[in-house]
Amino acid sequence: MTIxxxxxxxxxxxxxxxxxxxRKPPEEWDRRAAGYAxxxxxxxxxxxxxxxxxxxxxxxxxxxxxxxxPGVIALALAPRxxxxxxxxxxxxxxxxxxxxxxxxxxxxxSGILRSWEDDWSDIPAxxxxxxxxxxxxxxxDAALRKLDAKAxxxxxxxxxxxxxxIPPEIFEALGRTPPPPRPAPPDYIYVLNLLYRMGRxxxxxxxxxxxxxxxxxxxxxxxxALSFSLGELTGEETRRLKAWRETLPEGQWRFRGGPSHWAxxxxxx
Length: 269
What we know:
alpha/beta
């Protein structure tokens, strides 16, 4: 067998399933919209600064930001663009995008309510297409081809380097049995292999994840963060978690997880 015999699209789908990947419903992102806006739209933001700095955009007038959330990347680039479209499947995130654009005095930003799995035939092609930390999808090959098809000049995205981790003591505090060992979720290396099969020549850089060990969270934020990863907690689980948290020094009340770096991947179309 050689590398040419490997179906990376299917391998990714199998890997995602084995790692317990799932498509989160838009309601889960709706519940996080306010917190995301507060956390990521405040200046300075080292991740946003590095993403914009690595993104060639001087020859671009239009931008499509896929999985835009509250608009951190779209709004950072909007003053340099004639027209900006933010695509997301969370209505609350799009509302935040539009509110943030209005607060910044930006009149060239529009929201598009759409998911990765929806029909994109009516979405406008743009000079630049970006997907910042939004490609943890169940079918990566299909997602990359959609990004590529909508970009007149180039695509820039970030994907995780390594996987996420929830310590077993959290499961024990909840009274849940820790899940059996699973492979870490698939990371950026699949993007490179799939782009190679598409005939693209990607460039790769890396952004350090300054939020890998987050700032201490209050209890409600901690519950929301866990619920997003593990599903809604029951009342009993919430009580158990609070009792466990109260045994820890405040400095250890952190939600740890996430990759140590984000891979910044760009290619010309």
